[in-house]
Amino acid sequence: MAPMSNSNPRRKRATLNPDHTRRTHVPAPADHEIEQRLTELVKPAVLAEMAYYRTLGLRNRILNLPVMVAVVLTLIWRRVPGVCTLTRMLGRERLLWAQPTKVSQPSLSDRFLEFPAELFERILYRVLAQLPERASERTRPHPTLLRAIPTHFAASYALDGSTLEALFRKLQALREAPDAPFGRSHRGGGRAVYPSARQALLGR
Fold it and tell me: What are 193's strand-pairing partners?
C-alpha cells in the first residue's frame, strides 16, 4: 500500500503552526525561579488594584482578583491543557501566591467569562511601568545578543502570540462569541523580540 501523501497544504500549515500542533494533556512542571520572579513583579501590582476592584462592585469572594490573576498566569506559562485540569491544580497546589482553593469547574469557567478584562490591563500597565527602572538597576551582564539590541532598536519585547488562541481553545463560550480574538501578535518596526519569554523574564 502506498504511503499517505503529506502534500495537503492545509494539513502542512496546521503542522507547522505551533498553535495548532497536538496538545499535551499534562501541564508543564512548576519552575521555582520563574514563580518567584512572577510573584515579585506582578503581586504588588495586583494588590495595588484591590481598591479599584472594590469600586467595580466586585465582592471579595473566593475567586477574587489575586486568585484570578494567579490562575490566568499559571494557565498561560505552564500551558495547562484545560479548565478542568486548572481546577484540579487550584484545588491541590499553590499557584504562585494563591493558596490551594477548592472550586467547581463550572464556577471557574463562569468566573473567566464575567471577570473584567480591564483589571488585567491595569495590572499589566503597572508591571510595565516598573520595568525600565528595574532594567537600569540590573548589574548582571546581558548575553551578547541582548547587548547588541540597543544599538539597532529603540525597545525590545518578549511576545507570545499563542496566548489568546490558547484561551480561545479552552473556553467554549469564547469559541461561540462573534468577536472572539485571534491569537496572533503583530510586531512593528523599530523593536526587537527576545528569543524566548523565559530569557526576558529572568533577564538572560
Answer: 157
